[in-house]
């Protein structure tokens, strides 16, 4: 029987204070960085002017197109203004329909300090924080950890995961993982947050970043395990050299005293979710990078201070005090260093000598994820969320076609696809009268939170579409560009995933405790609840099913929470037959077209989990919980294969008051062992496909 647990904690979305501090730099306790007047008034689009507003936003697109700026992105036969609402087109996709539901006994909400899976399923740990993956790396010894050891070992706080094929090596695949942040309290015995040592700081640098590690399946047992010392295994840390590429590379805004070229950056930070490209590379989003930079309040130039503030940099010393050990983290000394973070990075896991890239054409913000798909003529389109309350949803449309095959020429060409194209931001308009969207979550009279949207172009290559900003400024200060064009302020856009079956795009909007509070934007049809604790999942259909379209239809697929809460909505499915779900974060599809959702910060009192749900057919909206994670953890990086599910268990044991010496979780190795973020594989004991 489903049992609701008592609500816990005063932190947003059920998170612990430690998670807030170390993961996001206490973002929820700071002033919302988006203080732009954009859309505050009257909750704009949702209200009143729906039709006029669409036309006006369409005129922006049209003007840019007339100026020759947006040759791409026009659907066949598309006029500049988006077509009338295509609400009735939902079931007319040219893609095959998916009508499968998921058959497993849902896991009940719980607070067990374990990964709990449905009956008939088994699990194993694939790799843990500290497991050696490079040649010469020592076995993990947490009491005597060194930066040198960590640089050859799997990093801390695994988040995004993707599995890529490894032709020619039987039963093996390439796992790409990122490592969002470190929690020094849980990593080091006797950690003193006021006085970190140089060795502790350098261990943290080495524990951030990315990993590439080959994994191998044991066909007999079903287990998946890491292959240490494989020649493809790699670590990328906070000190690895990355190249800035695309239109803003070399810009004055990206130059520092250590890099007068504005093209070479040391390291990647706070990598959250990501994506997998059809040409076989991995993408990863740099998210809450602001928290690593100190001294914003003391920067002399007021304009620079304002730009730093729009990205959440307003304070003095940083939490981890890295500025004491490297001047580049001190904004009073290197005000441009922070401009070199907040990008989407691309890694070629098949070339162990490749230099990882930061793609400036995709804009700079708190990137959650970056999930590509192809247009009918083979150009990649990348959907991207900016995970902050009242920030925006974006897409990038490349001007270049992907080359098929794995020849050297194809691989080299495909590594330039994300450097040329147009960056857009989304503006959503509801179709119901404003007085029917009252912040309570009550459905409007037409029975759905839905409407249309336009993609507003920000820049194409070296051409800016934003009055008063150069293209370089648009790419480096993308949030400010999006403020100026009137993008829609969303409830924390997190992961995004196009359905391989229907072409519809799904966006997780985690929560927004400040929606509708004093001085903040109120509810609109896409963000329909004030003090939104549990989040929603938005479904988007591009006009003409064309990913490069300038317009789209949208509707809310899930309005999350306890199904007994009248403000929730489960795609129209009977609410007494679904699992409670709160704070959707990462998304993935299985090959049947079911959407899988992992949660971050369950505000219903249960541990976070992974859920599956059909998006079409009779079972559309039937949310079923597949697993739960240990105490303090969030569920990340789901990879849903036919016969195996992978999840990244991030920040296990991160609860208020917990330390290395006083842990709040004994996962995964039991009492007396340090708690370790780890990747978990789950499969069916009878060897059959997941969920069918
Ligand atoms: Fe790192 Fe938006 O979660
Ligand atoms: Ca409506
Ligand atoms: Ca996330
Ligand atoms: Ca995803």
From TrEMBL:
Q: Name one Pfam family in it.
A: PhoX
Where is the stretch described as Disordered?
A: 510-531
Q: Which domain of life is it from?
A: Bacteria
Looking up PROSITE patterns in the UniProt record yields: TAT (PS51318)
Please give the InterPro entries that the UniProt record associates with this protein. PhoX, TAT_signal
This chain belongs to the protein called: PhoX family protein
Report the source organism: Streptomyces glaucosporus
Q: Give the signal peptide, or none.
A: none
Database matches in SUPFAM superfamilies: Calcium-dependent phosphotriesterase
């Amino acid at each position: 029987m489903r049992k609701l647990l008592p609500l816990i904690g005063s932190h947003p979305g059920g998170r612990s204070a430690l998670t807030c501090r170390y993961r996001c730099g206490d973002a929820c306790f700071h002033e919302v960085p988006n203080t732009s007047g954009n859309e505050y008034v009257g909750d704009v689009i949702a209200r009143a002017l729906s039709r006029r507003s669409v036309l006006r936003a369409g005129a922006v697109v049209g003007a840019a197109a007339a100026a020759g700026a947006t040759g791409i992105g026009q659907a066949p036969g598309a006029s500049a203004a988006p077509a009338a609402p295509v609400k009735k087109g939902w079931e007319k996709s040219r893609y095959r329909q998916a009508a499968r539901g998921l058959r497993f006994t849902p896991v009940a909400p719980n607070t067990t300090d374990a990964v709990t899976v449905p009956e008939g399923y088994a699990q194993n740990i694939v790799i843990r924080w500290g497991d050696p993956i490079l040649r010469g790396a020592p076995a993990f010894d947490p009491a005597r950890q060194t930066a040198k050891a960590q640089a050859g070992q799997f990093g801390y706080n695994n988040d995004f995961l993707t599995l890529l094929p490894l032709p020619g090596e039987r039963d093996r695949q390439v796992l790409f993982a990122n490592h969002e942040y470190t929690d020094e309290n849980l990593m080091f015995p006797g950690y003193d947050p006021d006085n970190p040592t140089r060795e502790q700081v350098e261990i943290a640098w080495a524990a951030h970043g990315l990993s590439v590690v080959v994994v191998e399946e044991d066909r007999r047992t079903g287990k998946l395990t890491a292959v240490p010392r494989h020649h493809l295994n790699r670590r990328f840390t906070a000190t690895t050299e990355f190249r800035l590429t695309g239109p803003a590379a070399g810009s004055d805004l990206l130059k520092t005293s250590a890099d007068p070229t504005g093209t070479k950056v040391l390291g990647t930070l706070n990598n959250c979710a990501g994506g997998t490209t059809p040409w076989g590379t991995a993408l990863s989003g740099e998210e809450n990078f602001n928290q690593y930079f100190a001294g914003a309040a003391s920067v002399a130039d007021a304009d620079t201070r304002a730009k730093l503030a729009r990205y959440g940099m307003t304070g003095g010393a940083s939490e981890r005090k890295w500025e004491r050990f490297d001047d580049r983290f001190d904004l009073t000394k290197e005000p441009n260093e922070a401009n070199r973070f907040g990008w989407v990075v691309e890694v070629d896991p098949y070339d162990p000598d490749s230099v990882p890239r930061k793609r400036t054409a995709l804009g700079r913000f708190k990137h959650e994820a970056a999930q590509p798909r192809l247009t009918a003529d083979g150009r990649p389109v990348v959907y991207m969320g900016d995970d902050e309350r009242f920030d925006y949803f974006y897409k990038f449309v490349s001007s270049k076609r992907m080359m098929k095959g794995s020849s050297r020429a194809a691989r080299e060409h495909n590594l330039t696809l994300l450097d040329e194209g147009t960056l857009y931001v989304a503006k959503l308009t509801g179709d119901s009268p404003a007085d029917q969207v009252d912040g309570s979550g009550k459905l409007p009279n037409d029975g759905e939170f839905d409407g249309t949207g336009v993609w507003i172009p920000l820049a194409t290559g070296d051409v800016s579409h934003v009055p008063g900003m150069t293209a370089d400024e648009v790419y480096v200060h993308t949030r400010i560009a999006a403020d100026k064009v009137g993008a829609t302020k969303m409830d924390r856009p997190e992961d995004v995933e196009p359905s391989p079956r229907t072409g519809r795009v799904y966006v997780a909007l985690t929560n927004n405790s400040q929606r509708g509070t004093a001085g903040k934007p109120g509810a609109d049809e896409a963000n329909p609840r004030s003090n939104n604790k549990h989040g929603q999942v938005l479904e988007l259909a591009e006009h003409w099913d064309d990913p490069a379209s300038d317009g789209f239809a949208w509707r809310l697929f899930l309005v999350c929470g306890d199904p007994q809460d009248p403000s929730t909505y489960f795609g129209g499915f009977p609410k007494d037959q679904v699992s409670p779900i709160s704070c959707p974060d990462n998304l993935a599809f299985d090959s049947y077209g079911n959407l899988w959702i992992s949660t971050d910060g369950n505000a219903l009192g249960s541990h976070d989990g992974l859920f599956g749900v059909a998006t079409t057919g009779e079972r559309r909206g039937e949310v079923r919980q597949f697993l739960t994670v240990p105490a303090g953890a969030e569920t990340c990086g789901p990879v849903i294969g036919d016969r195996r599910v992978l999840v990244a268990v991030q920040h296990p044991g991160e609860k208020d008051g917990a330390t290395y010496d006083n842990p709040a979780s004994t996962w995964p190795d039991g009492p007396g062992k340090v708690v370790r973020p780890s990747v978990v594989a789950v499969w069916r004991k009878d060897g059959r496909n997941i969920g069918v």
